[in-house]
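Example 5.3 — AraC-type DNA-binding protein
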Amino acid sequence: MRDAVPGAGPTPAPGTVYFDSVGVREAHDVVNRFYHPMSLGVPDSGDAKVGVEVIQLGPLTVGHLTFAGRVTLVAREMDAYHVTLPVTGQVLARRNGREVIAGPATAVAFRPGDPVYLRPEGPSAEIDVRIERWALESELTALLGHPIDGPIDLPPAFDLTNGPAHSWSRLIRLLHDELEHETSLVFQPLIGEHLCNSVLSGLLLSVPHRYHEELVAPATAGPPRAIRRVLDAINEEPDRAFTVADLAGIAGTSVRSLQEGFRRHLGCTPMAYLQQTRLARAHETLRGANPAGLTVAAVANRWGFAHLGRFASAYRARFGVSPSETLRRSA
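Solution (predicted structure tokens):
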């Protein structure tokens, strides 16, 4: 998508929307469009202003909201998972009767079915993360290797000052920081998908819930037969946009068991093996190509490499020459 209000800053990059210092009515429209059916109110007299920047990566929405003046955000029932990370100032959150006053050291979370009450104390800024219910629950199912009984019981609030949750919050801020860069790698579908999966799995590993202990326990290695199925799938279609969850599904194991099986039997991760297979196919293609009729970029794209510079770097590390040198020598 490409949306903006006139005169509202830089031209937005694909997958982003910018709204700069708009009134409550306009902010209500964008929050309802990208987040949840929600009402925005202004308890104090005077005009409140809201700034909004949003990036969407499939089932993941990350937005940066700024508030000048007090605004309340109320939803009767949440239809997805939602995490608010205050950046400056404070926000009063209420979930099922429990009140939390959160600042930059604390995140607040809501689950599908939860009523929502948020009152940012302006001037303030926050990052709001929406994750579609099916996506987070499917990610947990893939990681565990068995169905779950949802919704996932995310805590009402969690500490962002240390541990995995601190790392997760930095990943969220990275996505926000990439908003203004139209050529950012996050807009490459392959990179964006991996980042989205990292945000989902990172949240599941960072906060307490009833599956957390099972999730962080040492994984059992997948059996050789399961690993062989994955190897066959990769070798048959190395250009296919596999995710690690896709490969775990082929193996019939959890993601963690697949990763442990690859580590034990092959000494690498499934995605590293996939990259090496793609590099080998690209090498074969370049060696047998006619330089007049084929480009390095076309070969990189053919074998699933979204970023030409990263492809060239990985290729040189593997074969000791650049892709263009291999192509020239094939003449």
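Remark. The first helix runs from residue 24 to 34.
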